[in-house]
Write a structure and sequence with these properties.
This protein has about 200 residues and is mainly alpha-helical. The chain has one domain. It contains seven helices and four strands; from the N terminus they run αββααββαααα. The protein has helices at about 5-40, 75-80, 90-95, 130-135, 140-145, 150-170, 175-199, and strands spanning about 45-50, 55-60, 100, 125-130. A two-stranded antiparallel ribbon has the order 1-2. Strands 3-4 form a two-stranded parallel sheet. The protein is globular, with a radius of gyration of 17 Å. Pfam families: Bac_transf (PF02397). This is Sugar transferase. One of its GO terms (molecular function) is transferase activity.
């Protein structure tokens, strides 16, 4: 990615995140208030994630769980289904901690432990969406079907995500970012329409 590409990507991030914040600020605050009542805890929470260069930052999310390890409430499941719990991350993008498109930010213990050529994934800011997150859009459902979810995640899903993220970094184009963003919006609509038809 050239210096001009980096400027182009950052300008795109600023424009998209600023527009999203202006348009979605009231809905985000409304969802945080509902989540506060639903979970009996403050509806916005902060979680450590690994950012560009392996630096730790705090990602913003709307709370969907009443207790750590518990299943999401009905409202929480609704938020997750439409990815609404991740809307506050537009603030992370505006603050230059994240990008609109890029490898999803991982918990400590994954991306920060990448070795060799895999470390190139940390050369870019983590994003709201990526090819890997599209492929594993229903990751929770996939893991539920496994006898050993932790082992499956670490031995199958995680290596595949790293592979997809490396390809993204190696072959980055602004056109691909736009395509990933469009594919994400279409997938969210498609998945939830299918869910509604089955309800």
């Amino acid at each position: 990615m050239s210096s001009l590409d980096k400027i182009k990507k950052r300008l795109f991030d600023i424009v998209v995140s600023l527009l999203a914040i202006i348009i979605l600020l009231i809905p985000i605050l409304f969802l945080i208030i509902i989540a506060t009542f639903d979970t009996t805890k403050f509806g916005l929470f902060f979680q450590e994630r690994i950012g560009k260069g392996g630096k730790v930052f705090y990602i913003f999310k709307i709370r969907t769980l009443k207790n750590t390890g518990a299943k999401p409430s009905n409202f929480g499941s609704f938020l997750r289904g439409w990815k609404l719990d991740e809307l506050p991350q537009f603030f992370n993008v505006f603050l230059s901690q994240m990008s609109v498109v890029g490898p999803r930010p991982d918990l400590v213990g994954f991306a920060d432990e990448l070795k060799g050529g895999d470390k190139m994934v940390l050369n870019v800011k983590p994003g709201l969406t990526s090819r890997a997150s599209l492929k594993y859009f229903n990751e929770e459902e996939i893991l539920k079907r496994q006898k050993n979810p932790v082992f499956y995640n670490e031995s199958v899903i995680w290596p595949d995500k790293v592979k997809l993220n490396r390809l993204y970094v190696q072959n980055w184009t602004f056109k691909e970012d736009l395509k990933i963003l469009l594919d994400t919006l279409l997938l969210i609509i498609k998945k939830n329409n299918a869910k509604n038809r089955g309800a």
